[in-house]
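Mods, move this if it's the wrong board.
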Amino acid sequence: MKKLMVGMALTATLATAVTPGFGSTGGNQEKAYAAATVTYKVTASKLNVRSGAGTTYGIIGSVVKGQKLSVVSKSGSWYKINYNGRTGYVSSDYVQASGTTTPPAESTTYTVTASTLNVRSGAGTNYASIGSVTKGQKLSVVSKSGSWYKINYNGRTGYVSSDYVQASATTSPKLVVDSFKTLGNAHQVILVTADNYDTKSAKIQTFEKVDGKWKQVLTANGVLGQKGFALSKKEGDMESPTGKYTIGTAFGRYANPGTKLPYRKITANDVWVDDSKSSLYNTWQQKPANGRWTSAENMDIPAYDYGFVINYNESRTPGKGSAIFFHVGTNYTAGCTATSKEQVVSILKWLNPEKNPVIIQSPVSELDKY
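Not the wrong board. Structure tokens:
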């Protein structure tokens, strides 16, 4: 990247992605989070809670940055949550899940097998019946305790006997990385996509291969160069390079946040040489220049509080672009990829060089190249 441009901070708004038909009764594409030991925290300053999984549904309230959520399940880009005793939905783009690196591998469908099954206020027949469900009905299960399922029932918490509920695991929807043919021995992938070449807004997803199967780990909003992606990057074009790259050195202005990558702490003298005529072009050096270069980027800036080097232009071809990083930022860059500091640190902690991580950057329409 070049120096991070100054501008108005990106304002978090609800994502528009909707999973059709996702409602309170669950379904094959809904992932139950009952067994997960995960903390879910809001990352937007203010996030709307809606009555359904989509921006077309009414707003029933809001949550604020740092607030912890009681997540029931996830479908597409929406979390179903317990909100003040009601069922609500929030965009997963503005919720950080921490405490585990792999989400559940399978979704589960819970189906009533009895002709009529009482829903009780507690986990036992001594609790009062608050309603009933019928044979074939799908249930939204929160958790299991003994022989009882805790469910969401018409916006309330209810319990049904597991003896009369069939739980069947279904294969998770196919992930985008499942179709990639160029990953080789990479077991961790950071995927950065944009709707087209000209947008600076990006979607960042991370995936990990566990026991031969790809699992999605994280989804976050990000930004690219001011002019979007580059078909053929050049020095100073304000565009981020497309392609697949290995992960280089992690860096930051503070102590190692817990990454397994090689880590280098930035000092006041650290620069990245962007002088195409210098023999040190596209390398990390220290001042003073002493005639070794005429242009270099200062590394001791807030954008580089944490980040890592994207191994772009390793041949150091003059004019092809330099200083391509993944770092902190929410507006736009001059050629790097950026996201919030919280997400950068989360990804740094997750990355493991033993799993040969790569980063793929591409418009959505060209993912078939990989």
